[in-house]
């Protein structure tokens, strides 16, 4: 999910501010007034008082775009019962474990393509081992192909030799929209006539909707469903045929789900591969676990994952160090709240500093070190930490709707890519609404004997 509010401080700044002011402080940027909370305890206090229909933050610019184009609002913009109605339709087939397991074959197909793509690029590289510059990120970025297969019953084609124009357009538009979303929110309205940002923001949304919706299924799937035909398929078919959302709401939900797949699982996977490449012991331990559960060429099934705690720990640790959404928001709507014994009125915007909480030495010893073991029950390295110290998908009714799909994608991809290997220079993260690597991650992939 994208949390396009620039007034939320950047990850390293979160840590600095926490050092300076303690775990709760107020910041003001232009018209934005925000209460920052940066300890697991205070984050949990805010979330526990979030009410029945939690709101992250106002997105006036997203709403304005939707109004301008006469579109439905969708998950991010809708509030209260309206939001809840859409969520209740989206949830069942995305968050129930047994339902999500049905997507396993399609995710495996995409991961298979990913492996072939890595192999092709590896052989084409100068030293036949290093995937450099954009290549690895591009490879891994292709994992959103998984979500598109689930949604559309077709692939966005990121993994073909030549990436289709529409796919590149969608990815570029997603990047533009997210980057510009921050800028547009901050700039006063009069700047729209002199600066290019609002126009570019609108163009980016137009492209997203165009590719994500009209380019994909306007002319086939919905036409068939509307004509009363029984269509075999996956998620989109379910949305179209369940009759609980308007066509406009289906369109916008699909676009938002696709957006959720861009840069989330791909960045997490990039960081996981990066750390495994630098840490031979972790890489070997993961390899041994995978081989013990899925020997030879066997692919993991959903039910195998319960026997792969280290695989899950690697992803958890990666998301602790690089939470894709480093700072989330909660706007108190219905009630006044008390946090840290301070009273806050309705309409208070809280910023939940997840990055600061999950990098806190008090919670995680050697917080800057990659140690998947800390998540293993019974391991000498494991220890108790606050349940809200690392909540990369959020918790509660408003938590990430794509969590289960994202996890399945990452578990399958990481376990199968782990058969290759190693080595990378250091790279720092940066924020562009989501936390992303500041420069390309270079990895050497060597086929295992
Ligand atoms: C590593 C992968 C991912 C992470 C860490 C992540 C994280 C998050 C977080 C923190 C939120 C906000 C939750 C809250 O406010 O409490 C969120 C919301 C959301 N995510 Fe994800 N996400 C991931 C992948 C995905 C994927 C693959 C999809 C698409 C299937 C997706 C779709 C969404 C949507 C639509 C929302 C908004 C839900 C709502 O407002 O009701 N996410 N995500």
From TrEMBL:
Q: What is the lineage of its organism?
A: Eukaryota, Metazoa, Chordata, Craniata, Vertebrata
User: Which residues of this UniProt protein bind heme?
Assistant: 400
Q: State one molecular function term (GO).
A: iron ion binding
List this protein's GO terms for biological process: C21-steroid hormone biosynthetic process; cellular response to peptide hormone stimulus; cholesterol metabolic process; cortisol metabolic process; glucocorticoid biosynthetic process
By sequence similarity, the record places it as follows: Belongs to the cytochrome P450 family.
> Which PROSITE patterns does the annotation name?
CYTOCHROME_P450
Q: Name one GO cellular component term.
A: mitochondrial inner membrane
Q: From which domain of life does this come?
A: Eukaryota
Q: Which residues form a coiled coil?
A: none
- What is this protein identified as? Cytochrome P450 family 27 subfamily A member 2
């Amino acid at each position: 999910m994208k949390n396009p509010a620039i007034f939320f401080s950047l990850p390293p700044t979160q840590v600095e501010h926490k050092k300076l002011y303690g775990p709760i402080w107020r910041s003001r940027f232009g018209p934005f007034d925000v209460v920052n909370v940066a300890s697991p305890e205070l984050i949990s206090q805010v979330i526990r008082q979030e009410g029945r229909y939690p709101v992250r933050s106002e997105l006036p610019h997203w709403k304005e775009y939707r109004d301008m184009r006469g579109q439905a609002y969708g998950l991010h913009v809708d509030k209260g019962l309206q939001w809840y109605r859409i969520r209740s339709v989206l949830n069942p087939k995305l968050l129930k474990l047994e339902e999500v397991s049905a997507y396993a074959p399609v995710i495996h197909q995409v991961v298979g393509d990913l492996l072939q793509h890595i192999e092709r690029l590896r052989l084409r590289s100068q030293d036949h081992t290093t995937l450099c510059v954009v290549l690895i990120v591009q490879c891994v970025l292709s994992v959103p192909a998984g979500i598109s297969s689930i949604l559309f019953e077709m692939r966005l084609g990121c993994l073909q030799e030549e990436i289709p124009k529409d796919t590149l357009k969608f990815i570029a538009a997603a990047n533009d929209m997210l980057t510009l979303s921050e800028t547009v929110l901050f700039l006063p309205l009069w700047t729209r006539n002199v600066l290019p940002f609002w126009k570019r923001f609108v163009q980016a949304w137009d492209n997203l909707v165009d590719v994500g919706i009209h380019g994909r299924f306007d002319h086939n799937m919905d036409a068939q469903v509307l004509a009363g035909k029984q269509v075999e398929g996956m998620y989109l078919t379910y949305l179209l045929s369940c009759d609980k959302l308007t066509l406009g709401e289906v369109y916008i939900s699909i676009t938002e789900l696709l957006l959720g797949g861009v840069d989330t699982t791909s960045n997490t996977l990039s960081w996981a591969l990066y750390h495994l490449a630098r840490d031979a012991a972790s890489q070997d331990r993961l390899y041994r676990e995978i081989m013990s559960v899925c020997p030879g060429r066997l692919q993991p099934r959903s039910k195998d994952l319960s026997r792969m705690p280290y695989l899950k720990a690697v992803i958890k640790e990666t998301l602790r160090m690089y939470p894709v959404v480093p700072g989330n928001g909660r706007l108190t709507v219905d009630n006044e709240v008390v946090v840290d014994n301070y009273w806050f009125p309705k309409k208070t915007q809280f910023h939940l500093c997840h990055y600061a909480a999950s990098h806190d030495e008090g919670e995680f010893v050697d917080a800057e070190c990659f140690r998947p073991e800390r998540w293993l029950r019974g391991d000498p390295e494991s220890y108790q930490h606050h349940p809200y110290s690392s909540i990369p998908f959020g918790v509660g009714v408003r938590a990430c709707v794509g969590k289960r799909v994202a996890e399945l994608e990452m578990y399958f991809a990481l376990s199968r890519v782990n058969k290759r290997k190693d080595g990378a220079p250091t790279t720092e993260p940066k924020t562009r609404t989501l936390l992303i690597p500041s420069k390309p991650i270079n990895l050497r992939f060597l086929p295992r004997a």
